[in-house]
């Protein structure tokens, strides 16, 4: 059954998020196929040729439900949160015109915060300055960039992990181009979507989530992650590529330099992924109005979808 798109004030889009490895894609396949379209909000899955390490939905899963903003960015390039918001909003209109419910699904929280809150007034990207910073960080290392950021913007330095090269670059770029710290260009403290989004965050017990993360990393290697990354290196991948800043890929830079073994590499990916999942939960708790639902509580999830999406859900 098609949705009544004239009821715009009552219909909602769904944001389905949660820490990495919690089980978002499996849940979509089980409950959100007919009548839904997925807008990817994972900053790694936007890249072509990054399939295994980004845990992209399989081709079969993408046949069951349409996915957007996936596999469309060259791994050499970057894709900003501002670009995501622009693309996502345009897609939401198209999906609603087709009579379907848009589902923004992924764990890149700064994408979601930009979508839900009024955007900051931070300067637009200065590409020439960014390239200069990128080169300097490549030569002097992330530790140097982190120390420089602590001097000019200690608040942002406290928020950004030392291995998050892209965000270090961006924070330094904003300060150098505006003489103001990135932290001074804050998002609004109140959501600006006027209730248009139902935000559901799937959660699991910490120990269980960590076990799932470890199993997933092991499975990625069984599926051929090593060969996938070798293919990227054969095309010239290095630390300057946007894709090689992602967990599950950036760690291979040390392996290719002969600095670690495969087992050490696996352990590092698992550690970074667990740390990332912890940061994701911290960010999610800062978003107003999130419904936290245990990933195993399918009845609770269905009840929340029915209650919050109302007639839109019931018409599917």
Question: How would you portray this structure in words?
Answer:
- By secondary structure, the chain is an alpha/beta fold.
- It folds into 2 domains: 13-119 and 188-314, 3-Layer(aba) Sandwich (Rossmann fold); 127-184, Histone, subunit A.
- The protein has helices spanning 24-31, 59-64, 81-97, 109-116, 127-140, 142-152, 154-159, 165-178, 206-223, 225-234, 252-256, 262-285, 298-309, 311-314; strands at 13-17, 36-40, 67-68, 101-105, 197-203, 291-294.
- Strands 3-2-4-1-5-6 form a 6-stranded parallel beta sheet, sandwiched between helices.
- Helix 3 crosses helix 4 (109-116).
- The longest helix has 24 residues, at 262-285.
- The chain is globular and about 55 Å long.
- 36% of the residues are buried.
- Residues 1-11 have low confidence and may be disordered.
List the helices and strands and how they pair.
Blueprint: E1 13-17, H1 24-31, E2 36-40, H2 59-64, E3 67-68, H3 81-97, E4 101-105, H4 109-116, H5 127-140, H6 142-152, H7 154-159, H8 165-178, E5 197-203, H9 206-223, H10 225-234, H11 252-256, H12 262-285, E6 291-294, H13 298-309, H14 311-314
Parallel strand pairs: 1-4, 1-5, 2-3, 2-4, 5-6
